[in-house]
Backbone:
């Protein structure tokens, strides 16, 4: 039975591909026809019938190029473009609409039909669906663009610059002392941390800080828990009635550091994840649970309007500094490992973790692949996370109110003790 079906599909493959080309045109035509449904018949340049036929025409053009002459597809495409331009030009005399989106959609429909017949059905289908979605969400896309701020657009372009432009240009090989530095891998880690910060920023931007301190704290942890700690600590002196909720926000932001660590391990060194999972999970839970407890007792603070505690998380200078710090930590780690053994790694983790836990985490995760043992990497990462959270606990105690400092410090210390114990025993 399967052989019969397979033979049938093989024998009728050209007809099936042409049918798909027709259906893809109809898909885009349905969307275009819906947008212009209020117009009278004949006033629409291209609706469901035209798009369906254009998709079929694209498929036939690809088939003719395969069997008759290579010039069939480009000549038919140029002819279609010329006819469409004449129609759009004539329409401008009655409707002063200078948008060429519909024209581009029609030409894409022709191309999707050709791709379905001559290249790949799945690729053509995906392209047609995405095109229909983009055409159908005109107002939503324009609305997002109107809400976009200049520095956010700048951040997005910089993220593309450091990822799709700079990353492929870097050599993927070891350089420097003992070949410890791999420019491609170092910059790939820079892109990873920058992307997570970027996502965290826009999660807050879309949700809005008015949703509450907890929401702000949770997503600020993806971007800058230190900045949030400073902001909330100062705020506690001005708004003592919500200091418990501010403490909950700090704990959530600091706790969100631990899922980030697991993500780094899963992406860079999956073999390290089983050893890291228990201590990191326990440390995170020992911050999340007190935060939830404080939230349940002080829910009214969720209605307080809290200003966004972070700025644009993606600055190119920051990315470059992070890359330099990462390279420095990797070189120091190699040097301290040769000089002091495991003790040197732990010393580096403690000192580096106070400034930035991401850089040392990425460095140790990378080093666990070939230069240090997994157990050393796990304990080093836990030490770095502990030093980082203790530093933020100190900031909350010094800059904030005394009750805020106590509410933050006690869970931090408990998390530190549990994490170090589990990492040492593991």
Residues:
């Amino acid at each position: 039975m399967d052989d019969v079906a397979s033979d049938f599909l093989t024998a009728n493959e050209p007809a099936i591909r042409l049918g798909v080309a027709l259906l893809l045109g109809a898909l885009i035509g349905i969307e275009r026809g819906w947008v212009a449904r209020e117009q009278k018949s004949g006033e629409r340049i291209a609706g469901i019938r035209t798009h369906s036929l254009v998709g079929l025409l694209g498929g036939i053009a690809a088939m003719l190029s395969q069997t008759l002459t290579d010039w069939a597809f480009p000549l038919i495409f140029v002819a279609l473009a010329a006819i469409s331009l004449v129609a759009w030009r004539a329409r401008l005399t009655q409707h002063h609409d200078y948008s060429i989106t519909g024209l581009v959609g029609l030409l894409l429909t022709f191309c999707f039909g050709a791709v379905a017949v001559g290249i790949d059905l799945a690729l053509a289908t995906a392209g047609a669906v995405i095109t229909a979605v983009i055409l159908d969400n005109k107002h939503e896309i324009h609305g997002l663009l109107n809400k976009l701020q200049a520095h956010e657009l700048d951040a997005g372009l910089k993220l593309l610059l450091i990822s799709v432009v700079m990353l492929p240009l870097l050599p993927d090989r070891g350089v420097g002392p003992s070949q410890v530095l791999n420019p491609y891998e170092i910059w790939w880690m820079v892109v990873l941390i920058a992307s997570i910060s970027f996502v965290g920023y826009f999660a807050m931007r879309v949700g809005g800080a008015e949703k509450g301190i907890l929401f702000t704290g949770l997503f600020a942890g993806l971007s800058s828990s230190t900045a949030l700690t400073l902001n909330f600590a100062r705020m506690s002196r001005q708004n003592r009635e919500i200091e418990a909720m501010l403490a909950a926000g700090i704990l959530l932001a600091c706790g969100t550091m631990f899922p980030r660590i697991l993500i780094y391990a899963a992406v860079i060194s999956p073999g390290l994840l089983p050893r890291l999972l228990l201590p990191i999970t326990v440390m995170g839970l020992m911050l999340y649970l007190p935060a939830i407890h404080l939230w349940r007792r002080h829910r009214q603070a969720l209605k307080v309007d809290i200003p966004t505690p972070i700025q644009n998380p993606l600055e190119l200078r920051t990315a470059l500094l992070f890359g330099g710090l990462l390279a420095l930590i990797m070189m120091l780690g190699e040097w301290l490992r040769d000089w002091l053994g495991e003790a040197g790694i732990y010393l580096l983790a403690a000192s580096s973790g106070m400034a930035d836990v991401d850089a040392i985490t990425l460095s140790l995760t990378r080093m666990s692949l070939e230069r240090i043992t997994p157990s050393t990497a796990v304990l080093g990462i836990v030490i770095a996370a502990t030093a980082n959270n203790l530093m933020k606990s100190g900031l909350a105690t010094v800059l904030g109110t005394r009750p805020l400092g106590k509410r933050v410090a006690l869970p931090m210390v408990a998390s530190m003790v549990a994490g170090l114990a589990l990492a040492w025993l593991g």
Notes: The chain has two domains: 2-144, 153-425. DSSP finds 19 helices and no strands in the chain. The first helix runs from residue 2 to 11.
